[in-house]
């Protein structure tokens, strides 16, 4: 009993020391510079969607600035050697949630609304499957697709400029559609065709955005199929293990 009594304080002291060592480490990851930029993105998006119907211009500026900060936090992570799994997840969740909210708003403005809801489902499903398959395959990043058989998929994640063009095109297209909508019963095809036939800087920007957006949707389909294959192969290998 005395031996137990003597060992207990020592064990308790070790636990306290271990917890004290873990707390600063955990806090330091939360306070990484790229993660702080990520928190700012969340705040900007909250403000943007709070004023989206009362001030379309302010919404567009805040939303697009938040989107651009996605590149800033990535640069900070590499510059200050502060790459973290939490930061990568925060980044993806912020991207997916902000785009999802905008697509839901567009589904309430344009008809048929199923177009935007389908895009929302594809976006979330493809990225979620890609992230999950990354962990199953033991990779450190969901952007590691060097072993993919699709050249377009490899090009997308292997070339920052190409990926940036596709991602920016999607967000710019959605912002333009939000800005040019005059009421809540717009026909999507009529608005797009009318805007493209005006031969203005806006129509040129819209055309470039539609092209990049189209590539991004093709990549989303490829990504979803590739990630699903990884999950299926994981199940097959698990079944054949003794």
From TrEMBL:
Organism annotation: Brassica campestris (Field mustard)
Keyword vocabulary terms for this entry: Lipid biosynthesis, Lipid metabolism, Magnesium, Manganese, Membrane, Metal-binding, Phospholipid biosynthesis, Phospholipid metabolism, Transferase, Transmembrane, Transmembrane helix
Gene Ontology CC terms, in alphabetical order: endoplasmic reticulum; Golgi apparatus; membrane
Cofactor(s) needed by this chain: Mn(2+); Mg(2+)
Catalytic activity entry: a CDP-1,2-diacyl-sn-glycerol + myo-inositol = a 1,2-diacyl-sn-glycero-3-phospho-(1D-myo-inositol) + CMP + H(+)
Chain segments annotated as transmembrane: 29-51, 157-181, 196-215
Cross-referenced Pfam families: CDP-OH_P_transf (PF01066)
Gene Ontology biological-process annotations: phospholipid biosynthetic process
Protein name per Swiss-Prot or TrEMBL: CDP-diacylglycerol--inositol 3-phosphatidyltransferase
Family: Belongs to the CDP-alcohol phosphatidyltransferase class-I family.
EC number: 2.7.8.11
PROSITE patterns linked to this entry: CDP_ALCOHOL_P_TRANSF
Lineage summary: Eukaryota, Viridiplantae, Streptophyta, Embryophyta, Tracheophyta
Membrane topology: Multi-pass membrane protein
Classification via InterPro entries: CDP-OH_P_trans, CDP-OH_PTrfase_TM_dom, CDP_ALCOHOL_P_TRANSF_CS, CDP_diag_ino_3_P_euk
Presence of keyword Lipid biosynthesis: yes
PANTHER family to which the protein is assigned, alphabetical: CDP-DIACYLGLYCEROL--INOSITOL 3-PHOSPHATIDYLTRANSFERASE (PTHR15362:SF4), PHOSPHATIDYLINOSITOL SYNTHASE (PTHR15362)
């Amino acid at each position: 009993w005395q031996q137990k009594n003597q060992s207990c304080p020592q064990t308790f002291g070790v636990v306290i020391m271990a917890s004290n060592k873990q707390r600063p480490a955990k806090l330091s990851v939360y306070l990484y510079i790229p993660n702080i930029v990520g928190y700012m993105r969340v705040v900007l998006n909250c403000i943007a969607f709070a004023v989206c119907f009362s001030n379309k211009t302010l919404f567009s500026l805040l939303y697009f600035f938040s989107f651009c900060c996605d590149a800033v936090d990535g640069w900070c992570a590499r510059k200050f050697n502060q790459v973290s799994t939490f930061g990568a997840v925060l980044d993806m969740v912020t991207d997916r949630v902000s785009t999802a909210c905008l697509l839901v708003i567009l589904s309430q403005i344009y008809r048929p609304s199923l177009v935007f809801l389908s895009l929302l489902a594809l976006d979330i499903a493809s990225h979620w499957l890609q992230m999950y398959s990354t962990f199953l395959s033991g990779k450190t990043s969901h952007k590691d697709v060097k072993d993919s058989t699709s050249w377009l998929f490899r090009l997308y994640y292997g070339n920052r400029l190409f990926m940036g063009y596709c991602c920016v095109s999607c967000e710019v297209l959605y912002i333009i559609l939000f800005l040019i909508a005059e009421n809540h019963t717009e026909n999507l095809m009529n608005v797009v065709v009318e805007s493209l036939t005006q031969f203005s800087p806006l129509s040129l920007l819209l055309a470039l955005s539609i092209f990049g957006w189209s590539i991004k949707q093709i990549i989303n389909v490829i990504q979803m199929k590739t990630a699903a294959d990884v999950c299926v192969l994981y199940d097959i290998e698990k079944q054949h293990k003794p």
